[in-house]
Amino acid sequence: MTTPKRTDRSRTLILDAADRAFRELGFVNVSVEEIATRAGLTRKTVYNLFSSKEEIALRLIARVEADDSAYRARMAANEDVLKLLEIVLTDSAHWCLANPSLARLALAPAERPSLRPPPDRPSFQGLVRDILVLGQRQGVIRRDDDADFMALVLLGIYGQAMLSALSGGSFGEGETRHLIRIVVEGIGERSQNRSGKP
User: Fold this and answer.
1) Contacts of 6 (CB under 8 A, 6+ apart)
2) Is residue 163 within 8 Å of residue 108, measured between CB atoms?
3) What confidence tens digit (pLDDT) does each residue in 97-126 have?
4) 81-94 tens-digit pLDDT
5) Distance CA 180, CA 83 (A)
6) pLDDT higher at 183 or 49
7) CA-CA distance, 180 to 41, in Å (whole number)?
8) What are the structural domains, with CATH classification, of the chain?
9) How far apart, in Å, are the Cα atoms of 4 and each of 9, 18, 48, 69, 147?
10) To the nearest whole percent, how much of the chain has pLDDT over 70?
11) DSSP class per residue in the chain
12) CA-CA distances (angstroms) from residue 128 to 7, 11, 52, 120?
């Protein structure tokens, strides 16, 4: 078994220390000095490995997004997509509420999100898109539209709901189910067929 390089260990120490500090104090109230102290490293070491506190926060978000193996295993088992979407969004909501300062950064990025998920790394957008593709194969998600576009719409609605929840509202399993139902069924009245029957 190989031991991690010193820089890899230092990066992990920094990310773990920043994670704890952001949860306890909030992103705005944490300095690079605070992160370095908690990591047991010098400020210079932190700046040698990360350009800024913002980069540290973005790496923490990417680390959470990369941890999707449990969901991917459920997808491989061909689980019910709507239930899986509920689980994924509820788990994400729990993370957001436990990490409000990082969640705000993730939910309101400086750059407008792209239609396609980043091809070079795992992302929440990519996970949701892949779940929708599975739903198209299962016949429960519409096939006449692009899964990338539908994922962006779903995440836009989810992101706004989470930003509201972070401002003092709540977001639990019931709200997640409701959000998914509205997105999947649409906002219009259930249409009647031409004979007038629902």
Assistant:
1) none
2) yes
3) 888 889 988 888 777 778 888 888 889 999
4) 999 998 998 889 88
5) 9
6) 49
7) 44
8) 6-61 (1.10.10.60), 67-185 (1.10.357)
9) 6, 20, 18, 22, 38
10) 91
11) -PPPPHHHHHHHHHHHHHHHHHHHH-STT--HHHHHHHHTS-HHHHHHH-S-HHHHHHHHHHHHHH--HHHHHHHHTT--HHHHHHHHHHHHHHHHHHSHHHHHHHHS-SSPPPSSPPTTS--HHHHHHHHHHHHHHHTSS-SSS-HHHHHHHHHHHHHHHHHHHHTT----HHHHHHHHHHHHH-SSPPPP-TTS--
12) 33, 28, 29, 16
- Cβ–Cβ < 8 Å for 153, 183: yes
User: Which two structure tokens, joined as six digits, stand for 182?
Assistant: 């509205």
What Rg, from alpha-carbon coordinates, does the chain have? Answer: 20
